[in-house]
Design goal:
Length: 476
């Protein structure tokens, strides 16, 4: 007889493994199936995020930033580094170790929480019977299990340019971009989105000449315009060659290089030849091999699993979360949906607040934001007040030797409720949490302005930006 579970989760990325753990905490018998394999063929749970996304990219961003600082910034601190050289194999090895620590950590958490893990591909084996949905597992584990409730968390894949499939040698997705074994002299990047900027920064810091080709005429359209303009200036100054409004005409591979023909924003034909080309033009939902049609699971017109606001699919007791459904493709969004769905299955009122999901781009300086941008408030006809404070006037930033950027507050003109907070600067990824908490509690800018912040700390810039709403900055 097939093993029976209250909850079967397909996919152990941040959405799936967190949903599985939360469901187990709530007293359900839980199975989680994931097909990701490490180089030895063993299980590597954690999904895109752990294996070829958030974690390895942040490991390389950190290492490459150390390298850059050792080359330039340390001197100003009175630290002379003689004979600086790059040991790329060690840098990549460290990144792989960090990934493995996370894979092992998830396997440990499954054991601790009594989640039964199956290494293999899970697919619907048919419609629900009285006992639940039969799920067929193939690969290292081959068996059919049954789940009363199914949570689909199968994530996303990199989108290729038409006519230029990823070979991970010359044309790289995020997977290849995180494993280049020698710094390319010339690196091309198509798409100036989050991956293009993060991975472009890594390889530029390590010595590559990086050219980024972006289709849209505006830089980082989802980011507050003032912040995006500042970022464009800084990235260009660092040496990223960013070309906006281009149209890619063709990509052809030679033996050791890739040639991209494109039309620039002025309509002129251009050509670039690169040692490697990263294509980072967005991601597509992954429903490969899930047999969604066998069970009658509905997809939307863009290939995402169709869900309502509660992550319910068209099938009773089948839920879907994370990158495979609508909404931002972010690990923490997937996690929040995982927790909320597990709690809904338990009859609780799980909730994901889409209005307070923070975004971070881990470049240097980092860019982080929550809530609405100034251009969105204008488009929505909302009367607002804005306040900014530059890190240049923050004592801790000066001591760090990193005074780039600012904190920007946007608050309702009448009620003073915080509508958006936008940060470009050191540790923006950490600073944004204060704004998220404030917005969750519907705080006003005045609330933040009146809260005691430690001195000297970067967070004082947050308080000062809130004070700037009423033109009362104390240090600028
Ligand atoms: P995934 O993490 O994609 O996990 C899905 C899992 O399901 C995979 O392990 C897959 O193998 C498995 N699977 C799929 N189909 C089946 C099947 N039929 N049977 C069994 N297993 C299956 N987000 C952030 O918030 N912060 C970041 O810093 C960040 N950095 C990123 C950097 C890069 C380079 C990339 C590519 C992405 C980054 N993201 C980041 C996005 C983040 O990785 C995703 O939003 C997140 O991984 C989505 O989680 P998920 O659980 O929905 O799916
Ligand atoms: P993206 O959506 O961030 O950026 C893609 C960029 O490519 C856009 O600017 C788009 O205009 C451009 N583009 C699309 N088609 C093009 C074409 N044919 N020619 C030229 N430009 C084109 O997607 P990206 O960078 O691939 O990342 C995917 C997702 O992964 C992100 O949206 C984000 O959700 C997630 N991610 C999150 C990170 C974080 O939170 N720090 C880091 C990396 C990825």
């Amino acid at each position: 007889m097939s093993k029976q579970f209250d909850v079967v989760v397909i996919g152990a990325g941040p959405g799936g493994y967190i949903a599985a753990i939360r469901a187990a905490q709530l007293g359900f018998s839980v199975a989680c199936i994931d097909e990701w394999a490490n180089e030895k063929g063993g299980p590597a749970p954690g999904g895109t995020c752990t294996n070829v996304g958030c974690i390895p990219s942040k490991a390389l961003l950190q290492s490459s930033e150390h390298f850059e600082h050792a080359g330039h910034a340390f001197k100003e601190h009175g630290i002379d580094v003689a004979g600086l050289s790059l040991n790329l194999p060690q840098m990549l090895k460290r990144k792989n170790t960090v990934v493995k620590q996370n894979n092992d950590g998830i396997l440990f958490l499954f054991k601790k929480n009594k989640v039964t893990f199956f290494h293999g591909r899970g697919a619907f084996a048919g419609a629900a019977t009285g006992e639940g949905y039969p799920i067929e597992i193939s690969g290292p584990t081959a068996e059919t299990i049954v789940g009363k409730q199914i949570i689909v968390a199968t994530g996303s894949n990199a989108r290729a340019l038409p006519g230029a499939p990823f070979d991970e040698k010359l044309i790289l997705s995020n997977t290849g971009a995180l494993a280049i074994d020698a710094v390319p002299a010339k690196l091309g990047v198509i798409g100036a989105g989050v991956i293009g900027l993060e991975m472009g920064s890594v390889w530029r810091r390590l010595g590559a000449e990086v050219t980024v080709l972006e289709g849209l005429p505006t830089f980082l359209g989802a980011v507050d315009e003032q912040i995006a303009k500042e970022a464009f200036k800084m990235f260009t100054k660092q040496g990223l060659g960013i070309h906006l409004g281009v149209k890619i005409d063709s990509v052809t591979t030679g033996e050791n290089n890739v040639t991209v023909k494109y039309t620039d924003a002025k309509g002129a034909a251009q050509e670039g030849t690169f040692d490697k080309l990263i294509v980072s033009i967005g991601r597509t939902p992954n429903t490969n091999g899930l047999n969604a049609d066998k069970a009658g699971l509905k997809l939307d017109e863009r290939g995402f699993i169709a869900v309502d606001g509660d992550c319910k699919t068209n099938l009773p007791n089948v839920w879907a979360i994370g990158d495979v459904v609508r909404g931002p493709m972010l690990a923490h969004k997937a996690e929040e949906e995982g927790v909320a769905v597990a709690e809904r299955i338990a009859g609780q009122h799980g909730h994901t607040n889409f209005d307070t999901i923070p975004w971070v781009i881990y470049t240097s300086p980092e860019i982080a934001w929550v809530g609405r941008t100034e251009q969105q408030l204008k488009a929505d006809g909302v009367a607002y007040k804005a306040g900014t404070f530059p890190f240049l006037a923050n004592g801790r930033a000066r001591a760090l030797g990193d005074t780039s950027g600012m904190v920007k507050f946007l608050a309702d003109a009448t009620t003073d409720e915080i509508l958006g907070v936008h940060i470009i600067g050191p540790m923006a990824s950490e600073l944004i949490s204060e704004a998220v908490v404030a917005m969750e509690f519907k705080a006003s800018a005045e609330d933040i302005a009146r809260i005691c912040h430690a001195h000297p700390s970067l967070s004082e810039a947050t308080k000062e930006a809130a004070l700037a709403i009423d033109k009362r900055t104390l240090n600028f």
